[in-house]
Write a sequence for this structure.
């Protein structure tokens, strides 16, 4: 008698859960790269990243 083995498919990776604050656009910004020169805008740009959801933004100084 042959036995049928059933393999469970790995569960799809869920995106990191966002906190309610992040969903409401209240991110916890942390400076990742200070004073990066953006040639397109010709200005110094500080790159900030949210500690909770990983979203990034550029801040012009
Ligand atoms: Zn966030």
């Amino acid at each position: 008698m042959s036995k049928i083995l059933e393999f469970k498919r790995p569960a799809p990776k869920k995106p990191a859960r966002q906190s309610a604050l992040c969903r409401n656009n209240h991110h916890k910004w942390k400076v990742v790269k200070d004073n990066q020169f953006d040639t397109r805008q010709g200005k110094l740009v500080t790159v900030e990243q949210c500690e909770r959801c990983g979203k990034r933004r550029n801040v012009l100084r």
Notes: DSSP finds one helix and three strands in the chain.
